[in-house]
Amino acid sequence: MRIAHVLRRLSFSDWGGTEQVVWNVARAQRAAGHDVRIFATTALRPVARETRDGLEILRFRPIYPWWPMPRRLVSELDRKGGNPLVPGLGRALRSWRPDVIHCHAMARLAELCLRVAEKTGAKSVVSLHGGGALVPEAEAESLRAPTRGRIPWGKALDFALRRTRRVPEDFDGIVCVGEDEAEHWRTRHPHVLFLPNGVDCALFRERGALAAPLQPPQAAAGGARERPSGSESGDARAPTAHVLCVARIDRQKGQLALVEWLGRHPEAELRLVGPVTQPDYLDEIRARAAALGASARLSVVGPLPPGSPELAAEYRAADVFALASRHEPFGIAVLEAWAAGVPVAASRVGGLARLCAANPGAAVMFDPDDPASLDAALGRILAPDFPRARAVAAGLAAAEAYDWGRLSGRLLDFYSEL
């Protein structure tokens, strides 16, 4: 089977959840004997063509249809959003003639995939990665902010080309990362698959993420467990509680709530790992940390490649993993933390709450809008009497159920049913 995966961007140095899904699914499908290619834009990686792990990746230059379009704004939209026009991508898809076109984007890219599928007879599938139906209006407004006040000349082109296809309704199949969104679309479409994100459990074992013995944060008198390099600043006192968050720096992920917690707990250190998709939000985070006198205990590490020794070291050094998302269809980093043997504190929102509730004992949940709830969750995990070994065992068992090999098989079955 020829399978084309289409997504907005694929950068190996600036990585997010969608990229992880596409990359791992494509690798698993290739391992199963299928002919797989990835089609993307040159956003954040200006390489037109490359091959990695036997997978061919083709990229095309995006054009953001707004005026004026200064270079600074192009860079910002490369990271998140922009709804680009992508000349050349449709022609490349038609030329290759895949059996399945699996789109991992919305708006113009999704409409392009539908047009090509109609012309070539390919099956069309779209994945909803971001919980689009569940995004709070305040966050949606922040996403529209970069292009506010600019002329949307792309709309005139859409009208001239009669781009009237409905997304995601007109796709042959809809894949939902979040169970809430799957339930929403099952009432509106005959072919919907709930396919959660996954994790490569073997990768964490191979990287030795569990090599360090687990111990309560207070175990070493006056000391702390191994701390990876990459901090923005040092602190004369060694923190006794190491909190890790692996997520893009973005309002959706709610890192500001963790910074507020840091200000209330001078014995703690917070490390933020992930690409910056909203630079103004990072500015807020740093400013708030400074106002709270917590800058020396906040480390913004930046993006780390999935499965890298550096990422494994971050998990190995953490006492607790915390994800304070405002909304979340799933929460792929929680699977990584479980696979790495780290106790988890997670927001009680959307698919993330479903994931944690389905695996009792593997996570402690909290309300992201309630500081006392966050204090209680992290305080419970960091307490000397917390049943850490049981929590780690529950997390490891949960992660095994989401191995990429299993999930890829379900997706291939879904293609065959369409």
Outline: globular
Mean pLDDT over the full residue set: 88
| Total DSSP E strands | 14
Biggest sheet, spatial arrangement of strands: 3-4-2-1-5-6-7-8
Element pattern in H and E: EHEEEHHEHEHHEHEHEHEHEHEHEHEHHH
Summarize the structure.
The chain has helices at residues 17-31, 71-79, 89-96, 107-120, 137-144, 153-160, 179-186, 201-206, 255-264, 279-291, 309-317, 332-339, 350-357, 371-382, 388-400, 404-417, and strands at 2-9, 35-41, 49-52, 55-60, 100-103, 123-128, 173-176, 192-194, 241-246, 268-273, 298-302, 320-323, 344-347, 363-366. The protein has 418 residues and is an alpha/beta fold.
Architecture overview:
There is one protein chain. With 418 residues, this protein is α/β, with parallel strands linked by helices. The protein folds into two domains: 2-198 and 403-417, 3-Layer(aba) Sandwich (Rossmann fold); 201-400, Glycogen Phosphorylase B (Rossmann fold, 3-Layer(aba) Sandwich), CATH 3.40.50.2000. It has helices at residues 17-31, 71-79, 89-96, 107-120, 137-144, 153-160, 179-186, 201-206, 255-264, 279-291, 309-317, 332-339, 350-357, 371-382, 388-400, 404-417, and strands spanning 2-9, 35-41, 49-52, 55-60, 100-103, 123-128, 173-176, 192-194, 241-246, 268-273, 298-302, 320-323, 344-347, 363-366. The strands form two sheets. The protein has an eight-stranded mixed β-sheet with strand order 3-4-2-1-5-6-7-8, with helices on both faces. Strands 11-10-9-12-13-14 form a six-stranded parallel β-sheet, sandwiched between helices. A hairpin with a 2-residue loop joins strand 3 and strand 4. The longest helix has 15 residues, at 17-31. The two termini are 14 Å apart.
